[in-house]
Amino acid sequence: MNSDIRLDDESPLDLAQILNELDNEDCILPYDAIRAAQKHREQMTPLLIEMLRQATEWVRQGNDAETNGHLIALFLLIEFKAKEAYPAIIDSFSLTDLQAMDLYGDALLDFMPGLLAQLAHDDLTVIDDIIANPAFGSFRCDAPDAYLYLVRDGVLSREEAIERLRRHLRRAIDERDDIVSILIAAWDSLSPPEICPEIDEAFQLNLLDDSYISREEIEENIARGDVHFQENLNWLPTTGVVDTFESLQDCYLFDDVGDEFDEEPDDDYDEVDPEYEALWNQVFRPDEPVHPGEPRDDLLTPTFHESTIVNFTPKVGRNEPCPCGSGKKYKKCCGAS
Length: 337
Fold this sequence. Notes:
Elements: H1 15-22, E1 28-29, H2 31-39, H3 41-60, H4 69-79, H5 86-93, H6 97-104, H7 112-120, H8 125-132, H9 146-152, H10 158-174, H11 180-189, H12 197-204, H13 215-224, H14 226-234, H15 244-248, E2 256-257, H16 274-284
Parallel strand pairs: 1-2
Helix pairs in contact: 1-2, 2-3, 3-4, 3-5, 3-6, 7-9, 10-11, 10-12
């Protein structure tokens, strides 16, 4: 995509051109247009809000989203901390699951708790309303985790977040809301001093999915106390959006990045990690010496020993870091299936 947008102060500002570049039909992430929007955020904000509103209404009427400009608009508005955009943003999160999937795909999977935390920095009812309202569909499942961001950011104390989650849990139990397991997992991530009566009640009523989080996990994490709490804080990414282009450049919804941005090629994509190779050899060829780092032509055709039973899946809590090393929580990564 060839862009005529220039970023120097002497260039005439063509807002329509910037919008057109952001909402291009080629599924290209437009570097220059994003940088121009960032430079002229005051003029661009109302136009980005309208772009998001139109896309939301278009999908709500049963149409298919044909471009990704609304996703860029969402990230820019959150990056700008544009409070006037919050109603339009929240409205886009209230689509049905199918409509939301059409609008955003699963591009918000890793961002959603942090995005909601940014929105709630000035108004905590944003999170409370989403958690309590089933109309928000799958997006409400990410809302409880936003409390952890708010604690990390100093907006809420740990005790306040625990109490808010407990109140939500009380309501969810009374209404037999299927968000009970998610609330308890978020509550557990804050590592409270003891199991509250609501959790005992949820177990007694069989409202908690043991595959999501078990009582044993909760008790273990309570025993670990601050260690468990600090681990969860340390795994949190940055709240909200720092730079829209940096956040979206690896998003699968965009086929390419455009304009002057040229990502360095990855020359190491075909290298085998020595530690992984050593583990592989140890499991599948236990009778042979292990030499990490040496090339193996038969690495992908291992010999299985019938007497060897191997469990490749470590026991890990759904709120703990995924053992695959992705940096995500297990429930957001390998435990999502």
